Amino acid sequence: MIHTRGLTRVFKVKKEKVEAVRGIDLDVETGQLVAFLGPNGAGKSTTLRMLTTLLKPTSGTAMVAGRDVNADPTGVRARIGYVGQRNSAGEDYLVRDELITQGRCYGLGTRQATARAEELLDLLDLRPLAKRTPATLSGGQRRRLDIALGLIHRPSLLFLDEPSTGLDPRSRAEIWEHILRLRETYGTTLFLTTHYLEEADNMAERVVIIDGGAIIADGTAAQLKNDLAGDHITVTTGTEAEAETAARIGEGTAEGTTVRLRVANAAATLPGYLRSLEDSGIKVTSAETARPTLDDVFLALTGRSITDDNIPA
Ligand SMILES: Nc1ncnc2c1ncn2[C@@H]1O[C@H](COP(=O)(O)OP(=O)(O)OP(=O)(O)O)[C@@H](O)[C@H]1O
Prior knowledge:
By secondary structure, the chain is α/β, with parallel strands linked by helices. The chain has two domains: 2-225, 3-Layer(aba) Sandwich (Rossmann fold), CATH 3.40.50.300; 231-291, Alpha-Beta Plaits, CATH 3.30.70.2470. The protein has eleven helices and 14 strands. It has helices at 44-51, 73-79, 95-105, 110-123, 139-150, 169-186, 197-203, 221-229, 240-250, 266-279, 294-302; strands at residues 2-13, 16-28, 33-37, 59-64, 67-68, 80-83, 157-161, 189-193, 206-211, 214-219, 231-237, 253-255, 258-263, 284-290. Strand 9 (206-211) and strand 10 (214-219) form a beta hairpin. Helix 8 crosses helix 11. The radius of gyration is 24 Å and the shape is elongated. The two termini are 33 Å apart. The model has no long low-confidence stretch (mean pLDDT 88). It binds adenosine-5'-triphosphate. Pfam families: ABC_tran, DrrA1-3_C. Keywords: Antibiotic resistance, ATP-binding, Nucleotide-binding, Transport. InterPro entries: AAA+_ATPase (IPR003593), ABC_transporter-like_ATP-bd (IPR003439), ABC_transporter-like_CS (IPR017871), ABC_transporter_ATP-binding (IPR050763), DrrA1/2-like_C (IPR025302), P-loop_NTPase (IPR027417). This is ATP-binding cassette domain-containing protein.
């Protein structure tokens, strides 16, 4: 569904070159749900804009929904949907009319556009709002309308740029419910960017991490966490001196009386580690294990937290 080779975009700012995307090779198969993650300025939007034909690549190739973004951008656009960060509905039409009008813009006949609008009103739970104008909708309702608009021409591939950003937790959960329902109903391939690592972790079957314009990790969240981050053990000791010895024994780090270790399997490692500490006369006051997060993956790869310079909480 998406196949890129050496996809590159360089911006010229005055006399300087900004290499926003550096030779990306990416293959996304039909029906996949891919989360595209990276810190601010990593190159997510630039990649998305090239894949959706909004921006020309400097070099490299991209086949999207079976069409070449360079040779046939119109063909790509007819086959994909794009839900950007800004609202795509005007303010004046009623929700149902906006759907029908945009369907007509894609070349659907009135009857087809109306039938499709009715279908999407149900799929995105917009029916109770059909006679309202977009200006009167809440953030979450508006985002649902944007997704419906992105689907009006039955694209087989939908790009979503930060679909849940700026929404309260309940609306975020609702948007995800709809995204998953959409996939179940139509088998749509979904490629989305998000700042919310836990959403990518829980919802996407594949996570692609970009940093400095290059893909640095690609796999299921579980694979990435197992292969790159490992589990954590945190132990608290009675004194700082004990913590330092405990850190040495476990090849971890000590901070005050807290000792942190990174291990492949915390549940299996912890009992033996605690025994070694006891044998060395170290008093442990608490011990806990934790599974890694996608941020731990990013940290392991780059030495930085993905959220260091990111916005939302
Ligand atoms: N039109 C432009 N002119 C010059 N530089 C640009 C332009 N668009 C993007 N860049 C630069 O390219 C790099 C990648 O930007 P991009 O917007 O793709 O990142 P991003 O991962 O989407 O970040 P964010 O999460 O903040 O949206 C950044 O260094 C950015 O400053």
